[in-house]
Amino acid sequence: MAMWFITITLTLLFSSLTAAENSDFFEYVSPNSLGLKKEKLLHLHFFLHDVTSGSKPTAVQIAEAQTTNTSSTFFGFLAIADDPLTVGPDPGSKVVGKGQGLYGFSDQNEVALVMLFNLVFTEGKFNGSTLSLLGRNLIFENERELTIVGGSGVFKLARGFADLKKYSLDNKTGNAIVEYNIYVFHY
Ligand SMILES: *[C@@H]1O[C@H](CO)[C@@H](O)[C@H](O)[C@H]1NC(C)=O
Ligand SMILES: *[C@@H]1O[C@H](CO)[C@@H](O)[C@H](O)[C@H]1NC(C)=O
Ligand SMILES: *[C@@H]1O[C@H](CO)[C@@H](O)[C@H](O)[C@H]1NC(C)=O
Description:
mainly beta; AOC barrel-like; eight-stranded antiparallel beta barrel; 1 helix; binds 2-acetamido-2-deoxy-beta-D-glucopyranose
């Protein structure tokens, strides 16, 4: 019994090794072959408007836990957002993109979000390009640092961080304006 098991295992192992040797599913290429030249450090500055109240909210609750209504930190609350990004704190200032994604209250002791966002730019050379943001957001702290884990378009292979600063937060409605300073390496 052990014998046939070993035989089959060896056969599978051998054939998978052969398959790897014979296949062409990977190759090393130079960054130039993708038109990627010199890596640059870029600073982006804008304001995100998260509107949870009124007739045109930009962020809506999509789920909550049975126990969220008894949690002082809103633990288990999950929302999805399509928040405008503008050049100034005034919601009427020029829109440069959208912050689209999920945020959930993910801490039982502090009010902290897990954020999973695509920053979708719509202006100039960044039109159509995205940055992917992932991080912990202590929304009542004045300043927080989140991670830029990647990007697309102009921002492919991007990495960096986002400094978030509270501009305004309405405790009653939850409406927030947040200043973003992003530093990102990209090609
Ligand atoms: C919280 O919500 C649950 C249902 O999701 C409900 O059964 C419960 O009564 C609510 N508790 C409070 C304190 O509102
Ligand atoms: C951004 O790209 C879209 C789609 O290609 C286009 O419709 C739009 O006019 C562009 N916006 C700017 C400001 O260039
Ligand atoms: C809003 O709530 C937070 C957390 O409870 C508190 O630290 C802050 O002082 C409140 N702000 C206002 C303007 O009430």
